[in-house]
Write a structure and sequence with these properties.
The structure is a homodimer of 347-residue chains. By secondary structure, the first copy, chain A, is an alpha+beta fold. Chain A is 43% helix and 19% strand. Chains A, B: Belongs to the LDH2/MDH2 oxidoreductase family.
Chain lengths: 347, 347
């Protein structure tokens, strides 16, 4: 893997750069705010690739017609504790923001609530959603799907996306959280792409080639499919995620979702989040147990992220290449926008 | 593996044999009915070992003081859609039966409901709970823990039970269900015991020995610990199950639960079930998708079980050895009961 070059800038400046970029590619204020805050959260607390590098995918998707940046999600309440959103081919984060306070209120009132959303662009960093709910004191479980990237056995075709599952609970030490955010696949598709670009081999069990045969050739894997983690059990987790994310929301099954990088249509996928109010004392008890498990050598995911929340970062280190790409897209879109404004003024 | 000898008998006769056995070891009518119906369901639809062979564990646990067969679970409703049960050191199935209709009613009313239970004997076949909820038209997710059997890495000590996760949804073809019921461990502990008894080696990755080193020696594995399926991702699933099952319910963490086969105390573990009302048309849409996935070679778990529900089995094939053990325990306990009755009459 090649090291990515980093540059430092104030958080407020980064927020401003990202917001300007959203506006340049045709995103309205509300959608821009939703996407930028989720991107900053992923940048600070999630896997690095889900911050600025993935934001570039969003900008390209606005330009390519895979995201409608001007829509307002449509909310329905089929039953009191179910909040269902039609994302209207917009971003997934906008619908979540729109109903977040209702979701919190409903969970406090009845003890649990369900968020289902159909018809959105891919959900971005899934940990983002559950972290926000854990910060409200809840235990949360999220599932999402997307265009097909994973076969479930050698010889099979792609039938699922990476179908991640995220889980968060209050209870990290020092007021933090325990956050699990993991694909049902053996690895992320972006890792295949990176390994292919670097000409590196991939471990056995990660992927198959286009003929369905197991491969350690990264380029062959990109043309082929990811495999589930842990064999049949991981494949079952992927199926569960599919039924939760696309089944409960009424969204596209992964098999029917268009490519999030090249189609001119929204992948129109699903996002389902279960929010649970834990009993009094849960956070303290979970924190003590997490520390006890950690003392026995168990990795408690999310704790490092939680620690990063403890200080208010004034400046942040960002991926210089992704930042340059974002600024180039903004400049090019800005010129297009100005040009089209001029034409509008003339007509 | 050695084949188990089978014998056939009418379902009603099997029900009667199991009920008599429960009564003989000190179980009241309600607890006996709950345990027998769960055992018959596991026998017909679950993994064979979770039917009659596991029922023997229950009988021994009643006798050994690990289950109190005369208690009534205590129900509280901390919030409208949360039903919490203290199993009072009884069986897990009794609390579920006691609140089942409330759980169904609450889910229909608000869209979802949460069942949490603490202080019970190990939950038995976890698929049982979610199958019953899927039969009501719901999507359900269940998590349970138990005495520690699993380390999460080489060199580690046992920190979790097999920590299974079960999921069911209406939507198998022919009115059936999709049912996932799987351990977070690479295999079941009973498979280590069987392999050790047969002097067979176990695959790499299943277990470690007592020193924490990876092993393929089944006897060494029994003295050591199971490992999670799929490495770090499976370990995270086990942690999520632990927080759902023991955290949300307030039950013993796996680390604190006594052995379900040898302690004289209830393991006092947790069981948490999330019940979700799917949107109209879910079952038909899920069934069509399950058939489509199956046509692409994807194994859809639970479908074979669902097919077995299609005919009303008048006679059933049972594990002859387990049946003989159950009858021997019943006879011995019956003699003890008579003897103690005589003593009571004399005093």
């Amino acid at each position: 893997m090649t090291a990515t070059s980093q540059t430092k800038l104030p958080m407020e400046q980064l927020r401003s750069i990202l917001t300007t970029a959203c506006h340049a590619v045709g995103c309205n204020d509300g959608n821009a705010a939703s996407l930028v805050e989720a991107t900053l959260s992923a940048h600070l607390l999630g896997p690095p690739a889900m911050g600025l590098p993935h934001f570039v995918d969003y900008l390209e998707a606005f330009k390519g017609g895979r995201i409608d940046g001007r829509v307002t999600p449509q909310v329905t309440r089929p039953l009191p504790a179910i909040i269902s959103v039609d994302a209207k081919k917009g971003i997934a984060q906008a619908g979540f923001d729109l109903v977040f306070s209702s979701l919190v209120e409903q969970t406090r009132k009845t003890g649990l609530a369900l968020f289902t959303q159909s018809n959105s662009y891919t959900a971005g960093e899934l940990g983002y959603y559950v972290r926000r709910l854990a910060a409200e004191g809840f235990v949360a479980l999220a599932a999402t799907n997307g265009p097909p990237l994973m076969a479930v056995a050698s010889g099979g075709q792609r039938v699922y996306c990476t179908n991640p599952l995220a889980f968060a609970a209050p209870g990290g030490p020092l007021g933090g959280q325990i956050v699990i955010d993991q694909a049902s696949s053996a690895t992320a598709f972006v890792k295949l792409i990176k390994a292919a670009a670097a000409g590196e081999a991939i471990p056995e069990g990660w992927a198959i080639d286009a003929s369905g045969a197991p491969t350690t050739d990264a380029a062959a894997a990109v043309a082929g499919a990811l495999l589930p983690f842990g064999g049949a059990r991981g494949a079952n987790i992927a199926l569960m995620v599919e039924l939760l994310a696309a089944g409960l929301s009424g969204a596209n099954w992964s098999l029917d979702a268009g490519d999030f990088r090249s189609s001119d249509q929204s992948p129109a996928i699903g996002l389902t989040i279960i929010v649970l109010a834990p009993p009094p004392g849960f956070a303290a008890r979970a924190a003590a147990q997490a520390q006890r498990l950690a003392s026995l050598g168990v990795h408690i995911p999310g704790l490092r992220s939680a620690n990063r929340l403890l200080h208010d970062e004034e400046t942040t280190s960002v991926d210089a290449e992704a930042l340059a790409t974002i600024q180039a897209i903004t400049a090019a879109a800005g010129r297009q926008t100005n040009f089209s404004n001029q034409r509008s003024a003339r007509s």
